Amino acid sequence: MIPIAEGSGGKKAATVEGFDPRVIIFACNWCSYSGADLAGTSRYQYSPNVRIIRVMCSGRVDPSLILKALRNGADGVMVTGCHPADCHYISGNQKAEVRVSFLKRFLPHVGIDPRRLSLEWISGPEGELFARIATTFTEEIRELGPNPLTGDDMPEVR
Ligand code: FES
Candidates 88, 98, 130: which one to mutate for ligand 1, based on the most atoms within 8 Å of Cβ? Predict the structure, then answer.
């Protein structure tokens, strides 16, 4: 549990000391999830802060899901999918790219650093890459500190 202290202006400010980021990775079933699975079976170490949510395609990750994750306590969210031209649903990863790009421009308007959202292409045989990207992203989020807009501070998402 992250100790929360009242900051100036009525905003919650979390104590960064001892901060343990919560990172959500949406992983497409056909490529990235296989990469994560391979990372596990190959015993590549990656951050235990990561929680993986398997989706059929990165194009399935609606922006509202990303905002809900950030609202409900995630400090960072990564969307991962098949490399360009490898999507099993033809253009799902292209849709994901457009959505993440849009959200990165939107997030500052609700007080969230866009670096808290990332998009990566990881294929099934790239277990080592999955482990490296998951760990690097977690450390970047650790440096950013806690998500300042969890809970009541975040606009309602439906
Ligand atoms: S099936 Fe992997 S990104 Fe579409």
Answer: 88
Tell me, using a 6 A CB cutoff, whether residue 146 lines ligand 1: no
* Structural domains of the chain ordered from first start: 20-147 (3.40.50)
Q: Specify the pTM.
A: 0.85
| pLDDT tens string 62-104 | 999 999 999 999 999 999 999 999 999 999 999 999 999 999 9
Sign of the CA dihedral 63, 65, 71, 77? negative
Tell me which of 89, 98, 99, 120 to substitute to probe ligand 1's pocket, judged by most ligand atoms within 8 Å of the beta carbon: 89
